[in-house]
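Fold sample X.
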Amino acid sequence: MIALLEFRAPIPVETPLGRGYALFVEADAYVQYWTVVLDESAAFVTFRQSLIRAQNSYTHGRGITDDDMRDIVKHKEK
């Protein structure tokens, strides 16, 4: 049995073809396929889950680096 899960909001992901937004995932007991619309080409491409990763996204500050976010977190902990 295959399950289809459509996201309420697209999920920003990194793919072998560049950045994009995952729209939905098709899953069975052993494998998951994520359908992504790519930023650069606007093409819809389906990837195995093992080939994609979540983009760095710190809510509203997409351009914030990991080091910047660490500094922000350290500052808020004080």
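Fold sample Y, listed below.
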Amino acid sequence: MRKVTMLNRISLDGMFASRNQGTFGMDWFVQDPEVEKHVHALGEPGDPAPDTLLLGGATFKGFEASWLPFLTDPAAPPPLRAVAEELTKMTKIVFSGRLADTPWANTRIEKEPPGKVVRKLKSEPGGGIMVMGSGTVVRNLASEGLIDEYVFIVSPVVAGSGKPLFPDIPQQNLSLVSAKAFPSGNVVLHHRRLYQPE
């Protein structure tokens, strides 16, 4: 069965985005290329690479605005172009009742509830499934026990206010797979969900 992994940056007080929409909610993130490399290499030997990305509508619009231009910009830095190309190749499933279409290749706008769609995806052949940002999608899937692994990039910031990642979901019991601290102050925590007997 395919594995669903959540990847999100959070503050020390559990916020995954600020309320400042002008910066796509990322104004307090501490960027670090070494963190990006580490996160990209996470996973167990033999795990299939992620080939499907789950996104909420707001997160998708931010991704689209940020990454799509790098595909056609001749001056785009090669590392950023590589990320844009990788994201373009992935199947992007966007849960939105408002979006109708997008020029970004391999994107599907989904009106069905995330849980219903992800149950079907998990039973189909394919690579790993990732969800990034997309707080509403994360909460929906976590509430239904459909997220197998959680990767948190913890920024050295107390946000004070913002959007909490896990308001009002049932308790999730996790085991720590790995933890790595970086000189930038970021800490990457990789957790796996502990499955309880039915």
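Sample Y note: Strands lie at 4-10, 15-17, 50-56, 91-95, 107-110, 128-132, 149-154, 163-164, 174-181, 187-193.
Also: The CA atoms of residues 121 and 136 lie 19 Å apart.
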